[in-house]
Write a structure and sequence with these properties.
Elements: H1 11-23, H2 30-43, E1 47-51, H3 54-64, E2 72-75, H4 82-89, E3 93-96, H5 108-114, E4 119-122, H6 134-143, E5 147-151, E6 159-160, E7 163-164, E8 171-175, E9 188-192, H7 195-205, E10 209-211, E11 214-215, H8 226-257, E12 263-264, E13 272-273, E14 279-283, H9 291-300, E15 306-307, H10 328-333, E16 337-340, H11 348-360
Parallel strand pairs: 2-3, 2-4, 4-5, 5-8
Antiparallel strand pairs: 1-9, 6-7, 6-13, 8-9, 10-11, 12-14, 14-16, 15-16
This protein binds pyridoxal-5'-phosphate.
Pyridoxal-5'-phosphate (PLP) binds near residues 79, 80, 125 and 154.
């Protein structure tokens, strides 16, 4: 089976973990501080606050920007649950701006129509490893005095106009879950240039504790570990190489899939460097098989393949209130998308196997 995702870990990560185990320092310490500094530098931000996962990062970043009761945050309808659930955890209300049909990210004109007098922030999600179209999003945000919180949990190493994802709004959050472009087991980080937001995030991460047993805010235990940070430091050094390998695999896949009538490969937007966290194919009406049947056939051929998200976010049972305005593009597209293996451990021969399997789908 060619797995859909596989963490890429080697001897360096092993040695880094053993070094931590031998040191006896497990909870947040010097390695975490070093990882924060290096990751913030990589992105081009002044501050990094490492936390236990990407969800925790979004939660306290929203709180640090003052999101609270009754305030609206515009999110896209095609994304992971946490992009909206964290707004609700803050007491706020997620509202939805439809996506671009080809790029799958929030479409800037839909953002404009989604803004109301209660809107306080916008959360562009850089889905599948490609940034949202940030210039027009930032313009709308500026016109309405909105905070821009990038959900960059899928976009380590992606770029827009030569700037890294994570340096494109006010504050950004990343996840280091094992499938991501770089991983720490579980983990997350907030990056920002705003010293006050950084300080509030640091407090909220650890029970609002300014000094030992001196609690100035009611916060959480969202700290990460020295083991996670030690893995992260090694993975960060390898990140650009990982992204290069993903892009090579994606280029080969796209060359082959472009020849198959009825299957649309991913589109790289203007000024965007796609980091291919996911390689997403869209099934058009002209293709003889449904998306779900394609996924079944590829899996039985040994190609790890799965549908992308099962529904638009606002249709999830946990969100009982449906939005006033629906997102027809996302509703149409969501049932057409499937993921193919693109990670750095996919070889050129694997890509040939994947393309061969796709080619046979049109046959008897
Ligand atoms: C877009 C997006 N936002 C948020 C998260 C949450 O990150 P974590 O799983 O580390 O909590 C993820 C994780 O998969 C994600 O893909």
């Amino acid at each position: 089976m060619i797995p859909i995702a596989k963490p890429n870990l080697g001897d360096e990560e092993r040695r880094a973990v053993i070094e931590v185990l031998d040191s006896g320092q497990f909870a947040q310490g010097a390695k975490v501080a070093e990882f924060e500094k290096r990751f913030a530098e990589y992105v081009g931000r002044g501050h990094g606050i490492a936390v236990s996962n990407g969800t925790a990062a979004l939660h306290i970043a929203l709180l640090a920007h003052g999101i609270g009761k009754g305030q609206e945050v515009v999110v896209p309808p095609l994304t992971f649950f946490a992009s909206a659930s964290t707004v609700i955890l803050c007491g706020g209300k997620p509202t939805f701006a439809d996506i671009d049909r080809n790029l799958y990210n929030m479409e800037p004109t839909h953002l404009k129509s989604a803004v109301t007098k209660r809107t306080r922030a916008v959360m562009p999600v850089h889905l599948y490893g490609q940034t949202a179209e940030m210039d027009p999003i930032n313009e709308t945000a500026e016109a309405h005095d909105l905070v821009v919180l990038e959900d960059a949990c899928q976009a380590h190493g992606a770029e827009y106009h030569g700037k890294k994802a994570g340096a494109l709004g006010d504050t950004a959050c990343f996840s280091f879950y094992p499938t991501k472009n770089m991983m720490t087991g579980e983990g997350g980080i907030i990056v920002t240039d705003d010293p006050q937001v950084a300080e509030t995030c640091r407090l909220l991460r650890s029970h609002g504790e300014r000094a030992k047993y001196d609690h100035v805010l009611v916060g959480f235990n969202y700290r990460t570990t020295e083991v996670a940070a030690a893995i992260g430091l090694v993975q960060l050094r390898k990140l650009d190489g990982f992204v290069r390998r993903r892009r090579e695999n994606a280029a080969r896949l796209t060359k082959g899939i472009s020849q198959i009538e009825g299957l649309s490969p991913p589109v790289e937007g203007n000024w965007m460097l796609h980091s291919y966290y996911q390689y997403i194919v869209r099934v058009e009406d002209s293709f003889p098989l449904s998306r779900d049947r394609i996924v079944e056939r590829l899996n039985s051929d040994g190609v790890g393949c799965r549908p992308s998200y099962p529904s638009v976010l606002y249709a999830q049972k946990a969100f009982r209130r449906r939005p006033r305005t629906r997102c027809p593009v996302a509703e149409d597209v969501v049932g057409r998308l499937f993921e193919l293996p693109v990670h750095p451990l996919v070889s050129p021969e694997d890509v040939d196997t994947i393309l061969g399997s796709l080619d046979r789908l049109r046959g008897p």
